[in-house]
Amino acid sequence: MIAPLKISRAGLGVPIGILTALLLTTGASARPDKSPTLKGAYKGQFYVGVAINRAIATGETMGFGNRTMELMKQDIALTKEQFNQISPENDLKWSLIHPREGADGYDFRAADAYVNFGLKNHMVIVGHTLVWHGQTPNWVFAGTAPEADTPVQTPAAPARGFGFRGPRTTRAELLQRMRDHIHTVVGRYKGKIKVWDVVNEAISDGGPNVLRDSLWVQIIGPDFIDKAFEYAHEADPDAILRYNDYGLENPEKRQKLITLIKGLQARKVPVMAIGTQTHVSVSSPSVEEEDRTLTDLETLGLPIHITELDVNSAEGGQRSNGADVANNAATTQGGLVNDADQRLAHQYANLFQVFLKHKKAVKVVTLWGINDGVSWRSEGKPLLFDGNDQPKPAFDAVIQAAKSK
What we know:
Elements (H helix, E strand, L loop, with lengths): L19 H5 L13 H4 L5 E6 L1 H5 L10 H14 L2 E4 L5 H4 L11 H12 L3 E9 L38 H18 L6 E6 L14 H5 L4 H12 L4 E6 L5 H16 L6 E4 L2 E3 L5 H12 L5 E9 L15 H4 L8 H18 L4 E6 L25 H10 L3
Parallel strand pairs: 1-2, 1-9, 2-3, 3-4, 4-5, 5-6, 6-8, 7-8, 8-9
Helix pairs in contact: 7-9, 11-13, 13-14
């Protein structure tokens, strides 16, 4: 049984309450006789969170390649020690939590373990993600009604291996599937998961269109975003609902985000926070570019959550701040840049100084992985701890940046 954790939305920046202090003191801070911690260093400024994998949530290695039981136990201890907020890397994505059609097609075991881990350790729990073009099973888009027997047009394949071929479903049927999925998943964790990435990466990377040409757009239309937020709000009226995307350091994509969110706001869609992933490199963005990014996002009047922070040190990733899974291998090729540890530390210090400058808007900063050994960009050594959970110079730089506030 998952016990509820009572936390106000105010501390994550939603301007509907007065209990900010409650959230800003959730989780234990560093004791004077202990080494510094991230959550302790930034207490009273913003949450410092981490994305965790299934092994950390369950306490079982479960075939995680390079993670022995000893290393996994270190990963768990480090998570508890350093962070006061968690996100799931994969276990709340549609393909894992709802792999088969129908009410009997859910698998909640890993998601329950994740939520229980957060509750047990008094962490703010994020749900990632409800609606995405990637990691969505084929059955979600497959047609069952006679009028759905229309050949699929290209491009029509969600990313990450779930290419769709065959008759597609109708708008009405897909909306019903979306509503059922959101109501079931959000409803199960109502009052426990405090923040949801409702829609993930819907904005196009290039061209004039605001939205990418996903099956969600092709079958439902652009208002699939409105509906997703509407359904999530129905399922848990107290949850913080955010839109999440990558590459917002790019001015053109950032402007698309602003256009999208302003449209949602004009239609009274309950979007409550902006998630900017911040998958960046040691070369970019500059301090000025990151400052400009957050300044522009602040014009929307919503809290800003840094949702998936990592800093790529690989040569192949120095010209990209994207997070397209299909291009990930290319971004970690070529070995590390010269003076990688020093440049990583410098970039992390710069980023956290900018986050502090915008602390009135920035409410959460989440690292995308506990250490380099489990990172999705492990070859780029992008995190604050190495594969043995030892702090890198970048960790010290982030702790020092807190002292500049």
